[in-house]
Amino acid sequence: MTEAEKIVEQLSGNLSNVKSGGLRIWGQWFGRPMDNWHSLVACEAEGNNLLLKFNEDETLCVWAPRQAVISDKIFRIKDADRVRWEWFCYGRPKTPSNRYFEDFIKKESEIIATTNVDWYTPNLRPSSGSQAVEIL
């Protein structure tokens, strides 16, 4: 059984009790710290890839998650090969043209971040010394 499959098995039937809050990916807040509130509503695994779905139709894809601790008090995935967050621009219609992403790929000790955000210039500065995913 892969790590992603173990996480899904652990969370099955218990999603409403999983910690909610603001999202950080490799130390990079999504939005301002604690500005957004994310609650897990579904999860699945495809091999060792984890797909987490949140309350505003956001998705978090985690490739090869490692050392996950997910409970009512902690939501942390220590390491991964890649993490991608996707969301619809809040307040706009949920159409493909309003779907945005932040994509973080781990290459040795470096995290390479990209995004398709087009209404400002993001300053993505992830840190390989931080947790791959945290909800605080």
Kindly describe this structure.
The structure is a single chain. With 136 residues, this protein is mainly beta. It has one domain. The protein is 7% helix and 43% strand. The protein has 1 helix and 11 strands; from the N terminus they run H-E-E-E-E-E-E-E-E-E-E-E. The chain has one helix at 3-11; strands spanning 23-25, 28-29, 40-46, 49-54, 59-63, 66-70, 75-79, 82-88, 99-107, 110-115, 133-135. It has a 6-stranded antiparallel β-sheet, with helices on one face. A 5-stranded antiparallel β-sheet has the order 2-1-11-7-6, with helices on one face. The longest helix is centred in the first third of the chain and has 9 residues, at 3-11. The two termini are 28 Å apart. The model has no long low-confidence stretch (mean pLDDT 95).
Topology record:
Layout: H1 3-11, E1 23-25, E2 28-29, E3 40-46, E4 49-54, E5 59-63, E6 66-70, E7 75-79, E8 82-88, E9 99-107, E10 110-115, E11 133-135
Please work out how many helical segments DSSP would assign.
1
Low-confidence stretches: none
| Shape summary | globular
- In total, how many domains does the architecture comprise? 1
State the oligomer. Answer: single chain
Judged by helices, strands and strand pairing, the structural class is mainly beta
Tell me the strand percentage band: 35-45%
Straight-line distance between termini = 28 Å
- What is the helix fraction of residues, given as a range? under 10%
Quantity of strands, as a count: 11
